[in-house]
């Protein structure tokens, strides 16, 4: 199935720094989702976006649904050690979800 | 409640064994999914059930057999698996055609 382009592939940052990652697609989606996954666990939903241009926050996390409906962005402010993990974007089309390649985040205390 | 439960958490099986993975949700979702995930890779779709009927099969080998006994339950029957089938198996659910998708904690499967 289609896989979305997600960047960066990995990030190593100092605690307290801000983080930005993005996801792009060749297809239009009506829903964008962002997940965080810890090793050996299932992905946990962080933010859901439903409208082009929508900007949504969840604590230190902010995500945006791109105007073209082909991209989305996730920002994490003031990173902390528990932000470590792999972040996946996903675009929804009908009953199928297409996932990004993932961004591995390491936070150095 | 946005919980999807999966059992067992871990499973080790031989290539001649038959086992089943189980998934349950009580969010009233009518779409349920099985994914396979290898380490540090995104989930790969295996099957989608819509209103208890199989709607998508992503060319999965017949040694994986899904079953949806009712709107809350989803099973994955395993038979004659290969070592390369070792992975994290994830169940998920969503409303039909809109909204979020929620994942269970996964079953870590090891095939010896």
How would you describe what is shown here?
The complex is a heterodimer of chains A (109) and B (112). Chain A is an all-beta fold and 109 residues long. Helices cover 0% and strands 56% of the residues of chain A. Chain A has no helices and eleven strands. Chain A is globular and about 40 Å long. The mean pLDDT of chain A is 96. Chain B is mostly beta strands. Helix content of chain B is 0%, strand content 58%. Chain B has strands at residues 4-7, 10-13, 18-25, 31-37, 44-50, 53-57, 64-70, 73-79, 87-94, 101-103, 107-111. The termini of chain B are far apart. At the A-B interface, strand 4, strand 5, strand 9 and strand 10 of A face strand 5, strand 9 and strand 10 of B.
Task: Label this structure with key terms.
heterodimer; A: 109 residues; mainly beta; six-stranded mixed beta sheet; five-stranded antiparallel beta sheet; B: 112 residues; seven-stranded mixed beta sheet; four-stranded antiparallel beta sheet; globular
Blueprint (SSEs and pairs):
The complex is a heterodimer of chains A (109) and B (112).
Chain A: E1 5-7, E2 10-14, E3 19-24, E4 31-37, E5 44-49, E6 55-58, E7 61-65, E8 71-76, E9 85-93, E10 96-99, E11 103-108
Parallel strand pairs in A: 2-11
Antiparallel strand pairs in A: 1-3, 3-8, 4-5, 4-9, 6-7, 7-8, 9-10, 9-11
Chain B: E1 4-7, E2 10-13, E3 18-25, E4 31-37, E5 44-50, E6 53-57, E7 64-70, E8 73-79, E9 87-94, E10 101-103, E11 107-111
Parallel strand pairs in B: 2-11
Antiparallel strand pairs in B: 1-3, 3-8, 4-5, 4-9, 5-6, 7-8, 9-10, 9-11
Radius of gyration of chain B: 13 Å
Rounded average pLDDT of chain B: 95
Outline of chain B? globular
- The overall average pLDDT of chain A, rounded, is 96
Brief synopsis:
The complex is a heterodimer of chains A (109) and B (112). Chain A has 109 residues and is mostly beta strands. In chain A, 0% of the residues lie in helices and 56% in strands.
